[in-house]
C-alpha cells in the first residue's frame, strides 16, 4: 500500500499542470502589429509602428494603452494647442476593467476608458495564442481612430 501511495504522489508531483484558459493568458504583452480590414472597401492597412501594452492580471483585471506612431510632441505644455490635444486624443486607445476568457473569446468589461462611449460596455474579442504571441481581433466595429467599420487584429508578444 505504501508503494502505491508513493507512486501516486510521485506521479502528481511530476505530471505537467493543465492550465485554464485564463491562467494561460496572464501577463503583459507588447504590441507588435495592428491590421485593420475596412468592411466597405475591403482595404487592409497594417502598422508596425504603433506602440502599446496590454496586461491581464490574475485578479481578473485588464488594462490596455495603444498610441499611434505619428503623435505630436508640443515644445512645452504652455505651447500646446487645441490642435495638438485633438491629434493626441485621436492617436490613443486606452481602457481598463475586468475580463473573462474561455480560451477563444475574450470579454472586456470596460469600467474606465479614454472614450466615455466605451465605459460601461462589454468589448468582445476573438483570441488566438501561439506560444508567446497573442492575436486579438475585434468583431466588426467602428474604428476607434476614424469611425469606419473594420475588423482590427492586434498581434502582441508576451514581455512578462
Please, could you describe this protein's structure?
This protein is α+β, with helices and mostly antiparallel strands. It has one domain (21-158): Lipocalin (Beta Barrel), CATH 2.40.128. It has helices at 2-14, 21-25, 82-90, and strands at 27-38, 44-47, 51-56, 61-67, 92-101, 105-113, 122-130, 133-138, 141-142, 149-158. The chain has an 8-stranded antiparallel barrel with strand order 1-3-4-5-6-7-8-10. The longest helix has 13 residues, at 2-14. The radius of gyration is 20 Å and the shape is globular.
Q: Cα-atom Rg, whole angstroms?
A: 20 Å
Number of DSSP-assigned strands: 10
Percentage of β-strand residues: over 45%
The overall number of domains is 1
Low-confidence parts lasting 5 or more residues at pLDDT below 50?
A: 1-19
Report the major sheet. Answer: 8 strands, antiparallel, barrel
Oligomer: single chain
Quick structural gist:
Helices cover 17% and strands 47% of the residues. It has an 8-stranded antiparallel barrel.
Give a topology summary:
Layout: H1 2-14, H2 21-25, E1 27-38, E2 44-47, E3 51-56, E4 61-67, H3 82-90, E5 92-101, E6 105-113, E7 122-130, E8 133-138, E9 141-142, E10 149-158
Antiparallel strand pairs: 1-2, 1-3, 1-10, 3-4, 4-5, 5-6, 6-7, 7-8, 8-10, 9-10
